[in-house]
Amino acid sequence: MMDAYWLPVIFIGLMGLSVLIYAILDGYDLGVGILLPMGEADEAQRDTMIASIGPFWDANETWLVLAVGIMLIAFPAAHSIVLYHLYIPVAIMLIGLIMRGVAFDFRAKAAVDHKLAWDRTFKAGSILTTLAQGYMLGLYVMGFEGGISTHLFGLLSGLGVTAAYSYIGAAWLVMKTEDNLQQRAVAWTKTTGRFCFMGVIAVSIVNPLVNPGVFDRWFDFPLVMFVLLIPALCFAAFLFNDFLLGRLPKENDRHCWVPFSLVMLIFLLCFSALGFSFFPDVVPGQMDIWEAASAPESLVVILVGALVVVPVILAYTAFSYWVFRGKATSLNYH
Amino acid sequence: MLDALMLSRIQFAANISFHILFPTITIAMCWFLVFFKVRHDMTGNPVWMRAYRFWVKVFALSFAIGVVSGITMSFQFGTNWPGYMETVGNIAGPLLGYEVLTAFFLEATFLGIMLFGIKRVPNKVHTLSTILVAIGTSLSAFWILALDSWMQTPAGFEMRDGVAFPTDWFAIVFNPSFPYRLTHMLIASGLTASFFIAGISAYRILKGDVKKAPRLTLKISLLVAAVLAPTQALVGDYHGLNTLEHQPAKIAAIEGVWETEKGAPLLLFALPDEETKTNKYAIGIPNLASLILTHDLNGEIKGLNEFENEHPPVAPVFWSFRVMVGLGLLMLALSWFGSYHMVRKGKMPNWMLKVLVGTTFSGWVATLAGWYVTEIGRQPWLVTGVLRTEDAVTSLPASNVAFSLAMYLIVYSFLLVAYIHTVFLMARKAVKEEEFETNEPKPDGNLTNVNQPQDNVEGSAKA
């Protein structure tokens, strides 16, 4: 049956799209949280940094709910396996998300002497969430095999994702802030970019070594000539960004949006590489999308709605970014 | 004793009990905000905007906690109850999916514009954003209640190899108990938000707030509650009849009826005892339960004994129901009495204000009690007649669940204290705030002039 073949493919595509959008969008606001400078003199900068993500964080996080929701709806068997293995890191991530989500709102409303504590909570929550997500990504890539190497790879991946989110968060700040904070953001982008680069290299080396299937796929001649474009482009993007950052900020703030676009490109490339490594497996080495898929009659029901609603969501998301375009201003309810 | 099943049940109960507090506030409070904003746009009277400004902050805080605890909820199905999605995922999945697609993104995106966009978008777009957020929160309730009702009274599906497959989506969404449950929940939200607004407004007045906004919100919230409270009693009655038809074991537990009987009494107090299958110290009004449930003095009510091992634990259902109804009656009395004072005299005696402060969160308690009646009353079934709770639970070691449960309990209790503390702190801050803020003309900083002639709310309050 056509449906039984194509529906899972469409849904893994939709799920991939929401994971990618999530990583970029919540990635930058988690990154901003990670970078929060905690000195007492930095309070104004903290306010601006948090203001730069204020109107967006909630909608950004919704992409995570959608991604997990699609896995739950379309691939229930995989959902059970994945969440069984990731029970503890998921719980830790959720606690992290709770901490930052509420700290964001409490900091503005709490008594003045509690504000610093809520800012610390915000930073800690962001770091906890990011580490947990990176650790989960590492375990996933390893196909949830037990053993010390899996956990080590999980930790490595946790650090890699922390560098990546900080990188995109810093690039976001380059675009959304000015003056001293912008200069600091340029420096942060440069440093975190280098860490992120090392992380990408490390994961790219380890991943094919531990997964023979992935190795074969990547180095399958003549396809190798084509797929190596991904790391080549990625490398070029890193290099060019590093070079450009040395020249920012420019007069009239020209090109302040370029680093963020480049980091988005890097995220897209790394994500495609992961997708290329594992498709059509939904749990690497264990289960492919057709084995995990749920009933076509349920998938069709969701697909019809998704095809109508997702473009609308993208439209009003774009509208919201357009409304809050330009530099971040102080966060004021009115 | 505390195995993964029991721990998962406690964790789920803790998560949902904490989560439900915040949507219960925000679903209806957002419609209050729409009302304030639209009234402001229509009349140009700044007092409406002041009411909006204060309550939108409370709304934002409540919404944020609702969002993060809701994300936690959405993971619970997969982490703790894998058997749930494996058995009924074909039905629960699309319903949850539609909630995310139609409600989550809508409310999350326009919340940004509603909270921070007032100077960046035309006023009409801002009002529209407020309306869209309100629609989003209500749509969320629609989908979640559709799913919960389907679990209580499943319809529109067939079982193949132990897995539920949808056959009729209309029958699934509009299952037999859905209209009653949705209406009951929306009104519960209305009452919760009303008493919350009334309580905090009363608190501000008690703290010496002489501005008009708190008096206005006090009056409006009490009037809304005065209409909703009796409506809720009526809807609750219909809901009960529906439950008697589809889930008689739940009704038997609610009424504490052990043996099938005609002309059953309405028990006001009793200690149901599962061991002896009797009630101790029962005090009841003869024939009233039969009258209420069957609209016949000698109507027959099935007893718990007819549902051998298939009935819910009696005492929690029995008592939760009495807490819910008792609070409902209290809210009815308070809202009528309070409305009378506010409409007739435009103010309220101090003791009454204090009582209202005391009942600020009465809606929370009543709603939680109501959910316990509904959800514990569904046991031992997770999906009535389809899936037992014990068959859906994770095979994880109990220690993992104990770890996550402990973390949630610590975080939730801290947040609950912080939330309540902060809401009252915001109220105290508002007492001292100037009546006129940033973007409005200031009467030369002369605060004694705040009772402007154009500010004719007092006039309308007396009308």
Would you kindly provide a written description of the structure presented here, covering whatever features stand out?
The complex is a heterodimer of chains A (334) and B (463). Chain A is mainly alpha-helical and 334 residues long. Helix content of chain A is 80%, strand content 1%. In chain A, β1 and β2 form a beta hairpin. In chain A, α1 packs parallel to α14. Chain A is globular and about 55 Å long. By secondary structure, chain B is mainly alpha-helical. In chain B, 70% of the residues lie in helices and 7% in strands. In chain B, the strands form four sheets. A two-stranded antiparallel ribbon of chain B has the order 1-2. The interface between A and B is large, with 61 and 69 residues.
Can I get a quick summary?
The complex is a heterodimer of chains A (334) and B (463). Helix content of chain A is 80%, strand content 1%. Chain A has helices at 2-35, 43-53, 57-74, 76-85, 87-109, 115-141, 148-176, 179-210, 212-218, 223-227, 229-245, 258-278, 289-292, 296-323; strands spanning 281-283, 287-288.
Features:
heterodimer; A: 334 residues; mainly alpha; two-stranded antiparallel ribbon; globular; B: 463 residues; two-stranded antiparallel sheet; 15 helices; 7% strand; disordered C terminus
Which secondary structure elements does this structure contain, and how are they paired or packed?
The complex is a heterodimer of chains A (334) and B (463).
Chain A: H1 2-35, H2 43-53, H3 57-74, H4 76-85, H5 87-109, H6 115-141, H7 148-176, H8 179-210, H9 212-218, H10 223-227, H11 229-245, H12 258-278, E1 281-283, E2 287-288, H13 289-292, H14 296-323
Antiparallel strand pairs in A: 1-2
Helix pairs in contact in A: 1-3, 1-6, 1-7, 1-12, 1-14, 3-4, 5-6, 6-7, 7-8, 7-12, 8-9, 8-11, 11-12
Chain B: H1 4-43, H2 46-80, H3 82-116, H4 123-152, E1 157-160, E2 163-166, H5 169-173, H6 178-206, H7 212-246, H8 248-255, E3 261-262, E4 266-273, E5 278-285, H9 288-294, E6 300-301, H10 314-345, H11 350-358, H12 362-376, E7 381-383, E8 387-388, H13 389-392, H14 398-432, H15 457-462
Antiparallel strand pairs in B: 1-2, 3-6, 4-5, 7-8
Helix pairs in contact in B: 1-2, 1-4, 1-6, 1-12, 1-14, 2-3, 2-7, 2-14, 3-4, 4-6, 6-7, 6-11, 6-12, 6-14, 7-8, 7-10, 8-10, 10-12
